[in-house]
Every structure is written in structure tokens, then in C-alpha cells.
Amino acid sequence: MNKRLQYLILFFLVFSIAGCFFPKKNNAVGNEKDKIALMNADNAFSNMSAEKGMKNAFLEYIDSNGVLLRPNVIPIAGADAVDYIIGLKDEGYTMSWKPTGATVAASGELGYTYGSYILQPAEKDTVFYGTYVSIWKKQDDGKWKFILQSANEGLGEEE
Q1: How far is Cα 54 from Cα 60, in angstroms, rounded to an integer?
Q2: Contacts of 38 (CB under 8 A, 6+ apart)
């Protein structure tokens, strides 16, 4: 083996072994900031739903490629999801929710929230509870928009 090839092999071997001893950068602080920002976005989404109606809130917070998972319907995606939201009649009830947890990818680009929701019909003295999960994508401007949203009815009393 010629000397040049031996040095090249030795060079890669030394740096490969050295890489095992240097700790990887800890991204916990950045991830915690992203998690708080995502929880804040989900709370703002809920507040807008309670104040301006579910339709307005969903139109504001859905990504252009967002997907809605609804009971007894195939997934509704992109422009079809926006059209579905536009067609909602949300005058007869108020919907709000509270995220109870969130996780953000180490890259800071994707995350999810989950929690429980409250649906209050205007004409009834009844309150309905359920659970939800939203998957979020950070936009180029730093704002979070959901790319997938799903909910389940039937919690009974709020947990």
C-alpha cells in the first residue's frame, strides 16, 4: 500500500474515533422555546375560535396543505379542507380547547399538540367534551399552522 493511501486511511480512522468522544450539541433549550411557542399558538387558535368562531380560527391556522380527519369521511386535504371549513355553519355553538401537551422535533420545524375540547351549543344547557390532536408545521415567517387535525367525541365530563 502506498504511503498516501495509508495516511488517508489513518486520517479517517482518527476522526471517526474522535467523533465518538465529543458530545453532541444539546438542543434542549431551543426545543423548549419551540414547545412553548407551539403551545402558545394552539392556545391562540382556541381563543380565536371562542371569540371569532371556529370557522375563522380554522381558516387562519390551517396550512395550505392541511388535512382534516373527521368521522365517517375520508381525509380532507389542501383546498378541499379549506372549502370544507368555509362551508361550516358555526353560529349555533362555541368551541374551545386546551392543549395539555406538546412535542417539537429537534429541527424545530414540526410538532404536535393534544388536549381536550369543549363544545357548547348556544340553545342547549349541555356541554360536550372530547379530545384532539393537531400536527403543526412552522411556516417561513416563524408562525405555526396545523397540517393535520383530528378530534374524538365523547369524554363525558371534563377530565
Answers
A1: 10
A2: 102, 104, 111, 113, 136, 144
Going 148 to 151 to 152 to 157, the CA torsion angle's sign is positive
Q: Which of 130, 133, 140, 82 is nearest to 111 (CA)?
A: 133
Identify the helix (H) or strand (E) that includes residue 133.
Answer: strand 128-138
Distance CA 12, CA 7 (A): 9
Query: How does DSSP classify residue 23?
Result: P
Answer positive or negative: Cα dihedral of 75, 35, 63, 97: positive
Please give the model's pTM, rounded to 2 decimal places.
Answer: 0.79
pLDDT, tens digit, for every residue of 27-40? 555 689 999 999 99
